[in-house]
From TrEMBL:
Name recorded for this polypeptide: Gfo/Idh/MocA family oxidoreductase
Chain ranges of the Gfo/Idh/MocA-like oxidoreductase N-terminal domain: 3-121
Example of a GO MF term: nucleotide binding
Pfam families tied to this protein: GFO_IDH_MocA, GFO_IDH_MocA_C3
Database matches in SUPFAM superfamilies: Glyceraldehyde-3-phosphate dehydrogenase-like, C-terminal domain, NAD(P)-binding Rossmann-fold domains
Domain GFO/IDH/MocA-like oxidoreductase span(s) in chain numbering: 147-243
Length: 323
């Protein structure tokens, strides 16, 4: 079976997916829509996909087996729900949106359709992250520390809080998700976000330039995540998990794993390209009808979104938020 794919949104991340999909022989990208006609045209030239006049046309005009929804989180509308309701499996990028309530409503409908789908928490597909998750099964860290420092996304939408949600909701969401994936749920957050430098360097932006979030885990563990998208001289992203008789460190976005305990002191680097593994799992799921191949579904991604949006609210209201 050749899986026929449509793309809605053909910006930066869509091109990453297309590069990977083009390596697969059982895949054909057949249609694309983007409000930016140049991006749609370039994608069409690179793949042979037909350029459509609307997102609806991608879903309707010719048969597709899978749609990639790669528009920014403020510009998804009801696309996932429309695809699911028409029986079209979908991939949607993280984060799921900028309103938890709107996403919750979509989640309910998607769940009821039982459609095959995936959300782009791509770091879950690192073999190192899987290894950390397996190691932590049956072990309980008491402290978790995460960080993410780096630069900003170049697009204008990204620096508007109501469009992106900010660096935590859009980007450091990967670290929140990794913490949840390897160590379980988060049920309370207290956050502080600031804008010391952006007021001067990016006066038209509305996102914070730094933040720190304290949280409680369902396991009883406590943790923190510190992040900034204004760190020109230092970029890193990692999580550290401390137990009474072990230490687990996922660094370089999860591609490096160190485990230290009384029996081992090992460091491994990822052998898998998580972007490839993510697309491969999805294509195989579409072909076999087996959702279990997919490591992050809509309901799971909603929980990560809820943590990050609660952090935004916590800082705004200067109070802790129970999830
Ligand atoms: N999983 C990851 O690691 C990862 C990495 C980067 C981006 N992302 C996510 O992917 C999404 C897109 O990010 P990006 O970096 O590609 O952004 P981008 O700005 O590079 O591209 C977005 C594209 O969507 C198009 N678009 C906007 N509104 C549209 C609409 N209503 N209909 C059709 N097309 C529309 C734009 O014209 C643009 O081509 C965001 O949600 C982002 O958080 C995920």
């Amino acid at each position: 079976m050749i899986v026929r794919i449509g793309f809605i949104g053909a910006g930066g991340i869509a091109q990453d997916h297309i590069r990977v999909l083009k390596k697969m022989e059982d895949v054909k990208i057949v249609s694309v829509f983007d409000v930016n006609a140049d991006n749609a045209r370039r994608t069409s030239e690179a793949t042979g996909a037909l350029v459509m006049d609307s997102a609806d046309q991608v879903l309707d005009k010719q048969r597709i087996d899978l749609v990639f929804i790669c528009t920014p989180q403020f510009a998804r509308g009801e696309l996932e729900v429309v695809a699911a309701s028409r029986g079209i499996p979908f991939f949607v990028e993280k984060p799921l949106g900028v309103s938890a309530e709107a996403v919750r409503q979509k989640a309910k409908i998607i769940r009821e359709t039982g459609i095959i789908h995936a959300v782009g928490y791509v770091l879950r597909y690192y073999d190192t992250v899987r290894q950390a998750k397996q190691y932590l099964e049956g072990r309980r860290p008491h402290l978790i520390q995460g960080t993410r420092f780096g630069g900003s996304h170049p697009a204008k939408w990204w620096k508007q809080l109501e469009m992106s949600g900010g660096h935590l909701v859009d980007t450091a969401t990967h670290q929140v998700d990794m913490i949840r994936y390897v160590a379980g749920g988060i049920n309370k957050v207290q956050a502080a976000f600031g804008r010391v430098s952006f007021d001067r360097t990016e006066p038209e932006s509305t996102i914070p330039d730094a933040g720190t979030i304290n949280f409680f885990m369902d396991s009883g563990a406590v943790g923190s995540l510190t992040e900034s998208c204004l760190s020109p001289f230092h970029a890193s992203s990692e999580i550290k998990l401390f137990g009474p008789d072990f230490f687990v460190h996922l660094s370089h976005n999860g591609s490096h794993l160190t485990i230290i305990d009384n029996e081992r002191n090992l460091t491994v680097t990822a052998e898998l390209d998580p972007g490839y593994a993510q697309c491969r799992a999805l294509i195989d799921a579409v072909k076999s009808g087996n959702q279990a191949l997919i490591l992050c579904d809509y309901d799971d991604a909603l929980k990560t979104l809820e943590v990050t949006l609660a952090a935004n609210r916590s800082s705004e209201e200067r109070t802790g938020i129970v999830l």
